[in-house]
Every structure is written in structure tokens, then in C-alpha cells.
Amino acid sequence: MTTKFYNRDYPRPQFVRKDWLNLNGEWDFSFDDHQVGESEHWYDQAEFPKGLKIKVPFTYETQASGIGIETFHPLVWYRKLVTIPQEVKGKRTILHFQGVDYRAKCWVNGRVAGEQEGGYAAFSFDITPYLTYGSENNIVLEVADSQSAMQPRGKQRWVDENFECFYVQSTGIWKSVWLEHVSEARVETVKMTPDIDRHMIRLDFQLNGIEDRNNLRLETRIELKGQHVQTISLSPDRPWMTVEASVKHEAGGPWKQSLWSPDSPNLYDIEFVLYENEKEIDRVHSYFGMRKISIENGQVLLNNAPLYQRLILDQGYWPDSHLTPPSVEALIEDIDKIAEMGYNGIRKHMKLEDPRFLYWCDVKGMLVWSEMAATFEFNDEAVSRFTKEWLEIVPQQYNHPSVITWVPFNESWGIPTIAHEVAQQQFTQSIYHLTKAIDPYRPVITNDGWEHTVSDILTIHDYVESGDVFLERYQDKDMIVTNKISSNRWKFAFAEGYEYKGQPIIISEFGGIAFQSDEGWGYGNQVDSVEAFVERFRSITGAIKAIPYISGYCYTQVTDVQQEINGLLTEDRQPKVPLEVIRKINLA
User: Fold this and answer.
1) Which of 195, 267, 299, 323 has the maximum number of C-beta atoms within 10 A of its C-beta?
2) Across-strand partners of 230?
């Protein structure tokens, strides 16, 4: 069941307005290997080179883009002519980019409208001063990418060929582009924080353009399944305002709240309406879930009850579109198949996914670990780039109830000597505390799988093939948490100077079983039959579940990805093993 104001194509389902224009589709496109575009004024409508067309939001490396060239090009240009109707004159026109990799510079009608760095966070430019109304406007975007390991790149290769678990790079626009026409005075953002123990939702508003305005009124209306819950009103007198609202409601009996969980993903609809002199000037539709993630006595709790997490690692790649989902339906299909296999959560690995993915996880009750794309070197430049982008991403995903854990670091990527290097340890601590400053309510995992520093959960990666070997290795918890023995034979739980403090323990990577093939790889020995696959899967999954102090797991992985063929599904989402067999083992 969708939320009240769901729009299939709207790129930002948690902050919906009616007056918008989707700019996905055909754009002019050009490579600029000699870096002459700016000097030759390609941003001028008359000067843009003719020739290539690209289908946005797919990158030129993909078949879905209409180009399909995998060779790295460091500089690319886009152009689209857009007619802005006369009737929106007097409003502000915002140009939104959901994701551009890596460094973008935008011109509108030959004038610079804005610049942005970072491949995974969404960003926007107010292009109102540069527009002409009732006629075509020339929107041009220059995008610079690199093969630098100092920029957050996740699973994108930084050499000319794929290797190990690194795949074809993604350069340029890879998420939706769209225009929105808004009032000067408007609701800019709303940070929504549920408090199930007090039956309240806290709303932190950021308002834009309200200075020197009188008689403003901001009305917030909350519904659940079409039934009115609460209406609150305030008179904005400053850009930042906070209000709390009760979410108790009468539902066929005593006053109660409806909580969000995988078994019952209740979502409240919420509207924010800004009036000036009783005239409506802005209206935003959103939603929230009442749920609580906490940690007590070595367990992760959801809504104050123990949560056993059955996660699966998801890298979010498709054969013809790579990191860009081919459609909303493709996102829904993945979530549905994951649920069909008996998993209650997804570790979205090395990627910040399309917001519509998180929307459907919210709707369907699928838990999500949100993970930052890694750098692969440690120096001042890498630290600066990583920190800037992560601090943009966390607020952008904050309101999604499905997101229950932040994972800024994985397997010492970008922090290769964290086991003993103080500077790298301090970096992870800084990111941990900065994340907690924005969001003190979700667990943060620092260095998932390997040497942890400050971390709310102790996570371990172990691709051992035998359940018996796993049981023997993990039978003594103290041996693992005190670094007396290593996990996976060569990595320890904690970096030097750090120690176990009673955190929940989760096996956050294991399995990776691949069928025999000469064209790709998996973890450990490849299997030659469905029966052999199922037996190994059952053995290791059962062993993890048999260890009482382990409170969850994450299997590697949902689908094959390019040369990595250890998915439960093929790249085109065909099951290798009957899904009901996987489900039965997971739920046993």
C-alpha cells in the first residue's frame, strides 16, 4: 500500500510538491578529452558540439544510455533545451540533481548557475535569475570525473579494467534530473524524529524566504490510513523552528499509536502547508514511521523488542544500466524477491541508492543499512572529500524509517592501516561522532567487518565454507572480542587501543557461494550443483543462527555483479536456487 501522495516518477518521495518537471530522457552529450569545452564556450547554445545523444539518467558507460562505451573519459558535457512557462514567473525555479559523479558545473543560458562535488549526494541550484519565460532555456552541465582513489567511489574501478570486486566506473548524471517551481517563502526541509515512548513526533523545520514577511502560518496535518490524527499550527518568525505533535489516535478502541516494523510497516501521511495572509503559498506532502532503534544488553532492539536481523548484501547493479535502476519496478522487484527469500533487511553496499528504493523499503517494511561509498587512500584530500559528502548524505536519508543503521566505513577501505595507525583511528572516531551529532538515534558501525574503533555494533566478515568450522571458531565469544583469535583467519575484531564494550555482534558478510564457472568468481570453492549449493548455504547459515551471542547476519549477496558471480540471483534477477528453499533455511 502506497502513501497518500505517492507519485511513481517523483524523484524525492519524502518531500513531494505538485509543480515539477521531469528532465530525464534525451540530452545532447559530448566527451571533452582535450578539456576545451569551457574555452570554446560549449555552455553557449550556439557552440555546443553536435553529435551524441544520451538518455539521462544512465551514464555513457551503460547500454541503457544509448552510448555504451566503458572506456574512462575524464570530462563530459550535457545539454538540454527546456521551455519554462510564462505562468511560473514570480516563483523560484530549482534545478535538482539526485546524483552526478563526480564534479559538476552548471550553466543556464550561458551563465554559471552553480557547482557541486560528490558522486552520491543530491544537490540543487536556484536557476531563477538566469531564465527566460515562455521560450527555450539552455541548460548545460559539465562533469569532471577521475580515477583517483581519493574520491569516494565505492565499487567503481580506478584502473582501465575490472578487477577483484571492482566494476566499470560511472561518470556523469546517474540519477534523476528535475525542475521544481516553488514560492520564495517555503518549507525547505523538515527533519522528523519519532519518539514512540512519548507517542510524539518532533518536527525540525528549515524555512526559506520568510524574512520581512508578516501573517505567515504553517499548518501541519497528520493522517493514518485516511483517518485524521493531528493538526498543529504555528506562526513562523525565524528560519529554524521546532514543534512536537502527538501521534496518539483512536483506532477502534483505546488511544494508541501505530508502529512501523517489518511485520507491520505503518506509515503516517503528513502535509506541511504554508499560508501568507490566509493564502496558500507552499504545500509539501510527506510521511513518517513511528519506530525506535536502540541497543540494550548486547542486543539491537526495534520498538523496544529484540531484533534478529536477517540481512542480505545488495550492491544495486543491473546488466544494462549499472548503478542506475532501470525502472521503479526493478527496485520493487528486488525488494520483493529479497522478502520472498526470508530476509528482513538489506545492507546497501558501497552505494547510496535512489530515494525511491528507500521509499519502497519504508512501504514494504524492509530494514536498510545505509553505507557510504569508500575512498581507497588515506590523506587530507580523501578525508575532506569523504567527510563533506557523508555529512550531506545523512540528513538526506534521515527521515526514512527503513534506515536503521549507518555504515560509513567497510573493511578498512580508505583507512588501510587502521589496526595500528592513530590518525586513521581518529578519523573513524570523528565520523562516528559527527554522525551521532546529526542522528543520535541510529547505530553507527565504524569499519564494518574488520578492525573496529568506536562502534555501536561489532560486525564480522567471515567466508568460511563449513558450518562446523564456523561453530568451532566462534564457540568462545571471549576469544573473538579480545582479539585472541582472528575472524576469517586474518582479521581481528578491534584496532589497537580499542576493546569490546558489550556491543551486539552480527556476522555482516558471509557465504558468497558461486556455481562453477570460468567467467567469474565467488568466495571459496565453487559448487557444481543446486544440492551442493543448498547444503553449504544451510550449513553456514544454521551455524551462525546456532551461536547464541550472534544477533544477526548478512549474506553475500542478492545478485551477480559483472565478474562477481556469487549472487542468489543472476544479474537479470533469475533465481539460481528455488527462493522457497532459501526462505525455509532463513526462517528455520
Assistant:
1) 323
2) 222
Which pLDDT score, from 0 to 100, does residue 254 have?
Answer: 45
Nine-digit cell at 194? 519519532
- Cell of residue 60, nine digits: 555513457
Residues 543 and 398 grouped into a single domain: yes
Classify residue 362 by burial, with Cβ atoms within 10 Å: 0-12, 13-18, 19+.
Answer: buried
**Distance between CA 196 and CA 198 in Å, rounded?**
5
- 152: cell is 569516494
* pLDDT computed for residue 489 by the predictor: 67
Q: Minimal CA–CA distance to 169: which of 31, 62, 67, 25?
A: 62
Q: For residue 370, give the amino acid letter.
A: S
Domain CATH code at residue 151: 2.60.120.260
DSSP summary character for residue 374 = P
- Quickly list H helices, 466-571: 467-474, 477-481, 530-546
Helix (H) or strand (E) holding 382: helix 380-397
Query: In this structure, is residue 97 part of a structural domain?
Result: yes
List, for residues 554-575, the tens digit of each pLDDT value. Answer: 999 999 999 999 999 999 999 9
pLDDT class of 251 with cuts at 50, 70, 90 = low
* Residue 257 banded pLDDT, cuts 50, 70, 90: confident
CA distances from 335 to 43, 312, 415, 444 (A): 41, 11, 32, 23
Closest listed residue to residue 245, CA positions, set 226, 261, 262, 232 = 232
Q: Are residues 317 and 217 in the same domain?
A: no
